[in-house]
Write a structure and sequence with these properties.
It is a single chain. The protein is an alpha+beta fold. It has a domain of about 55 residues. The chain is about 30% helix and about 10% strand. The protein has a two-stranded antiparallel sheet with strand order 1-4. A two-stranded antiparallel sheet has the order 2-3. Strand 2 and strand 3 form a beta hairpin. The mean pLDDT is about 85. Keywords: Heme, Iron, Metal-binding, Monooxygenase, Oxidoreductase. InterPro entries: Cyt_P450, Cyt_P450_sf, Cytochrome_P450_fung. One of its GO terms (molecular function) is heme binding.
Length: about 110
């Protein structure tokens, strides 16, 4: 992760680097209204809300080793059409009793 690759030496954004939103939602073409995906803002906001809800209601931690200490996760990315991490193990559990109740209310009661 090197965010400085999008900056000039003076720290300002480099205008020669394409905005990732244009590449993804504009199919890599120049930024005009005729070729930007109409669902771009909907998907951005939906993804933000989903991630915010997950982080607000769940504790996501690495699994424990034999000594009861958190395992060290190694971030390894795979390239392809979309850059993505290799599969990894983690522990996902509600962060509180209130969060667990909220999760159960949103699911079918038989799943809790």
């Amino acid at each position: 992760f090197r965010p400085e690759r999008f900056q000039r030496e003076d720290g300002m954004p480099d205008s020669n680097v394409q905005d990732p939103n244009v590449v993804v939602f504009g199919y890599g073409r120049q930024h005009t209204y005729s070729n930007i995906c109409l669902g771009r803002h909907f998907s951005d906001h939906s993804l933000y809300l989903v991630v915010a809800c997950i982080l607000a209601t769940f504790d996501i931690t690495p699994p424990l080793d034999q000594d009861g200490k958190p395992q060290k996760l190694k971030p390894v990315m795979l390239s392809g059409l979309i850059l993505h991490p290799t599969p990894f193990h983690c522990v996902i559990k509600p962060c509180s009793v209130a969060a667990a109740d909220l999760i159960c209310q949103s699911l079918d009661k038989s799943e809790c």
